[in-house]
Each structure stands twice: as structure tokens, then as C-alpha cells.
Amino acid sequence: MKHAPGTSVALAAASACLALAIGMAAASPALAQNSGASIDMQRLYNPNSGEHFYTADTSEASGLVSLGWRHEGSGWVAPQKSSTPVYRLYNPNAGDHHYTTSVEERDVLVEKGWNYEGVGWYSSDNKSVAVLRQYNPNAKAGAHNFTTSSAENDNLVNAGWKAEGVAWYAVAEGKPAVDGAIMGVSTTTPAGMAAYYRAMGKKNGFSYPSEVESKGGAATIETFAQIVYEEANAEGIRAEVVFCQAMHETGWLQYGGDVSPDQFNYAGLGATGNGEPGNRFCDVRTGVRAQVQHLKAYASNAPLINECVDKRFKYVKTRGVAPTVNDLTGKWAVPGVKDGVTYGGQIASLMNELANYKA
Fold first, then answer.
1. Low-confidence ranges of the chain (pLDDT < 70)
2. Paired sense of beta strands 341-342 and 337-338, if any
3. Phi first, then psi: what are they for 260, rounded to 5°?
4. Domains along the sequence of the chain with CATH
């Protein structure tokens, strides 16, 4: 056992209400409610407390969504039964949950005042897919996160979380829901973005424009995707949002509108129509950084991490007015609806497709 989180102070009223609601409603976690050999583990997020919650009970998940939690899809697939149970505990002081296969850790937490809620699910004896555990030393609640995604693990570590190794094992990876949030942890990887691009190119008959993009420092789609990943994560923007918006805006880097490829402008910044080409940037990274910063202007009130290169950042009069890609409709793109299809909806559709590409 690396450490046992102690009790912590109560959350603010809004987050406490949500947390206590789950604590009271879920004293005895329901195990598999399907008859198959495996169970999709539901992953939910409390935007008030920052806690991620995991359950095999779809009814419990639905109840939490009705209370304001965000459903993030299937975190992983657990076996119906195995020799290794995962214990579920609840902290009545902080209002959050913890999960462990360690009897020692379970008992220490109970001694500290946590409520033992029984077996939540089981770890795979075949050790097929590792579920990784991270710890946030600064969190008052939701101090632990569990994921099968090495990209999510690495992103959290880069943000100051501590990697605690393998928590337990899954039968298979889950499938995250694409909720359209602009800010947050990236669930894609550079390899996944590159694989998606190549698949779309093969399907639709186009290739990566290396001759132009190499002049800006990205001779391959792998390098381009790596730059997107780095710049997005630097500002807390999800890389999948940046990549899919860029593909939508540029027609998969084939262009054809008012913006030309050598502008390294991947989001139509300043291209207001009627032949106006918009902003020009010195290289790929600067163009991507400007796009990321403009997204942050719309999605968050947080200050920029890097020096501002977005020439239109100051024109976003109300910060944080578009926290999801769907909210960009009518704001980033005006009016943002063509043939009944919205600007944000088109980006969200690409994000759903990208989620299927892991490498």
C-alpha cells in the first residue's frame, strides 16, 4: 500500500450535496446487472468536486447523471467474477469514494472513518488490461483517478498527479463517451490522431501535404499530431477538440477556401468571409497555439500558460461562454448552421470517430 488517504474537510455546499447523494444512495453497490461474462464499468465525473466515480450498476449511473454528474462512458470492462475483488469505500467527511484490491488499505481507511460499501466489481485474473491509478496530492476530494489510458495517466502526471502503478486489471478497455467538453484531459494520443488521419485519407483519396507543412516544422502527420497534443495539453484543452476542429476547418489540411496552406492557420482565425484570408502564422506550432488559445478564450476564464499569439484573443468579450464544442455554434462560427447541421455537431462527430483510433 503506497498510502491511505486520510479524511478531509467537507466540500462546498454544491459539491457536497452531489457527493452525499451518492453516498446515501449507494451504500451497497450493485454488481453485474447483466448475465454475460463481463460488465461495462460506468465512469462518471462530478464537475463540482472533481471526483470520478465508477460503478457496474447502470441504474446508479443514471441516478447520478440526473443529479448533475457527467457520464463519461465505459471506463473499462470488468469480469463478472474472479478471485480478486475490488473493494469500494466512502468518505463521509469529503463525500468521495475510493477503490482498492488491498485488504490492508481497506481496513486502514475504515479505521480512519471511511464506510466500507462492499465489493464494487472484480479484477481480471488474466491480467489482460491494466487499470492505472493516479493520486492528486492537492485534492480535497476525488484524490484518485483510475484509467486504462496511458495517455490520460501521463497527462495527469504532467499536471502534478502521482502515478501509483496498476490498481487492478480489466478484461478489455472501455469506450469513453464523447461529451464535447473543450477543457479537460486528452483521451486521444498523437498516434491515434495520425492513424485517424491516414484512415480518412485512404478512404477519401487524400494524403498529408508534407511539402507545405514541412516548411512550418511538421513534415509528417505524426509530427503534426504531436504538436497538437503538446500545445493542447499545455493550456488544458483536449487534443481531440483541437485536432478535429482543424480537420473540419481545413478539409483535412487540403484547404480550398479563403485560407491558404502556407498561412499555418488551422482554425480560420480572422477569415471572416468575402475573400478575407485571416491571420498568418510563422510555423505549424504557432498556428496550432493560436487555435488552442482561442478555444481557451471561449471555453474558460483561466489565464493563458504560454505567451499569447492569438491575435483575436482580445475579441472574445465574454470568457468561458462556450465550454463545449456544441457551444461554438453561433460564436466561433456564425451562424454556424448549414443544411441543418451545426458547426459544433460536425466537430463532435469527428471526435466520435477519432475515439475509435488508439494507434
1. 1-36, 176-179, 339-340, 359
2. antiparallel
3. -100, 155
4. 13-173 (no CATH), 190-354 (1.10.530)
